[in-house]
Amino acid sequence: MLAETELFSCQNKILYVPCKFYSMEQPINTALLSFGMSGKVFHAPFLAADKRFHLYGVWERTKKSAQETYPGIRSFNELPELLNDPAIQLVIVNTPNRTHYEYARIALQAGKNVVVEKPFTVTSAEAIELDQLAKQKGLLLSVYHNRRFDSDFMTVKKVIAGGSLGELVEAEFHFDRYKEELSAKTHKETPQPGSGSVYDLGSHLIDQALHLFGMPEAVFADIRKIRKYSQVDDYFELLLYYEKLRVRLHCSYLTREPLPAFSVHGHLGSFIKHRADPQEAALQAGVKPGQTGWGKEPDGFDGLLVTEEDKVEIRKTVPAETGNYGLYYTGIANALLRHTAVPVTAEDAIRVIRLIEAAFASGTEQKLKFVTSQHQ
Question: Is residue 255 domain-resident?
Answer without folding.
Answer: yes
